[in-house]
Structure formats: C-alpha cells, structure tokens
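Feature request, filed as a ticket because there's no other form

It would be nice if the structure record came with a short human-readable summary line next to the tokens. Right now we just get the raw output. Example of a typical job, pasted below so the devs can see what we mean:
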Amino acid sequence: MRLFVALAPPAAVLDELDAACAPLRAGRDDLRWTSREAWHVTLAFLGEVAETGASRLLPRLERAARRHQRFSLAFAGAGAFPGAGRANVLWSGLSGDRRALAELAASVSAGAARAGAEPPDKGRRFKPHLTLARCRAPADVRTIVASLDGFQGQPWTAGEIFLIRSRLTGHPRYETLGAWPLRVPDSAGRP
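Raw output as currently delivered:
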C-alpha cells in the first residue's frame, strides 16, 4: 500500500489559504488544483509499503510523536518545484517553528526506516510545504507565486501526526490508518 505521514492543518487555517488562492485559479487550466479536502503537510512519503511493514510502522510512529512537543506553524508565501518559471508543483510554504517541524520529520523518517519502510527520498533535504496545484507540463507560475508572496496565514498548533494511505484512482483518495498526538508541554513550558 502507498503510505505517507503528515500533519493535518485545522479547517479555519485551510479556509484562509483557500480564500487567498481562489482568485488565482481562474484562467489557469494548465494547473490541476489539489482538492482542499486532500490538503496536508507531508512529514515523510513512504511509497509502497507491505502490510507487514505497515504493522511494524505503527509503534515507531507513536514513539516518534511522543518524543516531540506540539509547536506553532502558519502558511506563508508560495513557491514551486523545481522553480516558478517551469513548475511541476505549486505550493504554499510554512512559517513558525520550522526547526521543530524538521526535527519531527527526521524522527518520523528514522522510525519508518527502522520499521523497514525507508522513505524513497531519503537523503533529500526536507522542504515543508502544502501542494496547491500540479502541472501536467512545466508551467510558468511566477505571477501566482508573486501574488501569494505576502500571504501570512494565522498560526496553528501542530499537535498530531497521521499515517495515511493514498489510493491513486482518478483523484487521490486518502484513508487515515493511525494518528498519534505530540506531547503537550507542562504548565511551566518544560517538555
């Protein structure tokens, strides 16, 4: 089965990002805008994982979540892979505690590798984002990126990680296989 581990931003935050993108969608038939219901922040893409590997993955992800405290993020700006002039993917970036986000992603990837589900992009630098659109052929999205450059969404708390199964029949369909909360700091702010 095809798996990934992600954060799920709250609905109000997604509403705000969706509203910022709405006027930019018109006239861009060259872009396949992702469904708002599928929006997430990927921590680790695991690719195809056997059922046995998936069962070994569950306790590793629970352990990774317990090692990290909740932290604050916000959607900010936009960009494209590999670049805005010839994009394959248009994305929204993130601001906030990006160090905590990167450390959580590293723990998730390490746990997956120990469970035998090593991410296929191991060794590639983690670039946190939310995919807004994909392009069938390289597209120039510089005007969209520039329009979203000053976007700064409201802060939200990343408090839980999700193991998600992806089915690629037509539009991707996602099924949550597990969810684990991050640690809540004590009242004195200590881990």
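Something like this underneath would help us a lot:
The domain at 2-26+38-77+93-125+147-181 is CATH 3.90.1140.10 (Cyclic Phosphodiesterase; Chain: A,).
The CA atoms of residues 76 and 152 lie 4 Å apart.
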